[in-house]
Specification:
- There is one protein chain.
- The chain is α/β, with parallel strands linked by helices.
- 51% of the residues lie in helices and 13% in strands.
- The chain has a single domain (4-261), classed as 3-Layer(aba) Sandwich (Rossmann fold).
- Helix 1 packs parallel to helix 2.
- The structure holds NADP nicotinamide-adenine-dinucleotide phosphate (NAP).
């Protein structure tokens, strides 16, 4: 029997790679993001390569009504969600004060509120059926003391890390696995969308970048293994470790150097 996973932000990057990974491991897909065309193309590719059945539901998760609308649409289609991947996200490197309040609200809505609401809406059914998988895509940035220039990004991801770990504890023994995936630099549209491709490419060498397919496989495997969290890549783990063990002041200076190199502060 093929189970069904809902993946947010599946039109590009890590979300699309996760969709291919889940389809390859025998799951059917519900794909959502704002852009419908790449979701349809991915649905066709998943059917051709893996025989996965896919439902595409375009949504803008910045709309506070989107999570409950998604649940209603999925229920109306008679589908049961056994897997949830909260992946949709972006960063803004325009500085806190130079970013409109409405843009801050949208970021919190897409990357913090929507994952919380979707988890709360889908988890009870998973626990009742004694099977479920929740994979939250946070970031190495959430393991750092701060992010400068994209000030809310790191804290939002830290929230997602802690919330995922708490949910992981709460769901032990229920048949539901909750895992948080913390990618470092990954080759996707992310840095094109936030307009920092040139800066990050010249500041960080090719070997520091991971490809989205590998990040997706690591996340999938960690969730299947019921690990609370996973940070892909040796260098990313070294950086996360340094941030944990260095004194706060020193770790913050490390982050400030990073932000200055990228011309964010
Ligand atoms: N790439 C990296 O270096 C990196 C590192 C650490 C963590 N991450 C995290 O990984 C996740 C995926 O990012 P990515 O690298 O794959 O970036 P990406 O290639 O830019 O993909 C982002 C996805 O999020 C969706 N999205 C953005 N705003 C949305 C909205 N308002 N409503 C619904 N969907 C929305 C986009 O779809 P539409 O535009 O079609 O809506 C797209 O599918 C994010 O949470 C990001 O923070 C990325």
């Amino acid at each position: 029997m093929r189970r069904t996973v809902l993946i947010t932000g599946a039109s590009a990057g890590i979300g699309a790679a996760l969709a291919r990974t889940y389809a390859g491991r025998g799951w059917n897909l519900i794909l959502t993001a704002r852009r419908e065309a790449p979701l349809n193309a991915l649905a066709e590719a998943a059917a051709a390569a893996y025989g996965a059945a896919t439902v595409v539901i375009p949504e803008d998760l910045a709309d506070p009504a989107a999570p409950e609308r998604l649940v209603a649409d999925i229920a109306a289609g008679g589908l049961v969600v056994d897997g949830l991947v909260n992946n949709a996200g972006f960063s803004r490197v325009t500085g806190f004060l130079d970013t409109d309040l409405s843009a801050h609200r949208a970021m919190i809505q897409v990357m913090l509120t929507a994952p919380v609401e979707l988890s709360r809406l889908f988890l009870p059914g998973m626990v009742e059926r004694r099977f479920g998988r929740v994979l939250n895509v946070a970031s190495l940035a959430g393991q750092m003391p701060a992010t400068g220039g994209d000030t809310l990004y790191g804290p939002i991801k830290s929230f997602l890390i802690k919330a995922s770990q708490g949910l992981h504890l709460e769901t032990q023994g229920t048949g539901v696995h909750v895992t948080v995936l913390n990618p470092g630099y990954t080759l996707t549209e992310f840095h094109d969308v936030n307009g920092s491709r040139e800066q990050v490419s010249s500041a960080y060498p090719a070997w520091m970048w991971m490809d989205a397919a590998r990040v997706a496989r690591i996340g999938y495997d960690a969730c299947e293994a019921n690990r609370p969290s996973v940070t892909p890549g040796v260098m990313n783990n070294v950086m996360a470790g340094l941030a944990r063990f260095l004194p706060d002041g020193l770790a913050l200076r490390m982050v400030a150097n990073h932000a200055k190199r990228l011309e964010r502060i």
